[in-house]
Amino acid sequence: MRKVIVTGTPPADWIAEADAITAQLQGAPDEAARKIILDEHEGFWRDARIRNWLMGQFANKCWYTEAEESISPIHVDHFRPKGRVKNLDGSYESGYWWLTFNWKNYVIAGHLINSKKSDVFPIIAGEQRAAVNCSEMLLKLEGAVLIDPLTDQTRLISYDRDDDGCVAVLAGGIDELEQFKAEKNYRNFRFESY
Prior knowledge:
Blueprint: H1 12-27, H2 31-40, H3 48-56, E1 74-78, E2 84-86, E3 92-94, E4 106-110, H4 111-117, H5 136-140, E5 157-162, E6 165-170, H6 176-189
Antiparallel strand pairs: 1-4, 2-3, 5-6
Helix pairs in contact: 1-2
């Protein structure tokens, strides 16, 4: 897995609109009001301005698999799910609604990968899920199981080439926690269930 290195920022007009919608969400009195705002702006993260900008960051490839998608559409995925979050035990809790229009939470994903990932975003046992409106630093320290393609965690999965092509393998020299994260990502992208 390769780290995606983002250069620059999305178009300023898209960011301004995203910030305005986020302010509406922040001002909503309850979950029902937030849902109305989210429903009104559901397609905004698929807007061509942000999608095209994100696609250009990694040569039009899926950020999770590095594969070019030539048959089905590429999706703008919310790395941290916006609506609800599925834990390792199959239980659900509230998603990261405040990050719905934050481009730093977006990942370009192939259709099949995005569909399989869905709401899956488990946290390592004993760790706390990030609080609403927490800082970016606290998000990075959250203890997420899934590997973020924008971080150095991508080194946890490497590839061995053999006669059949490339096979994903765990990188050497990693500790037990890093191995756990890599194995969970590997299982998720091989379409195995937790």
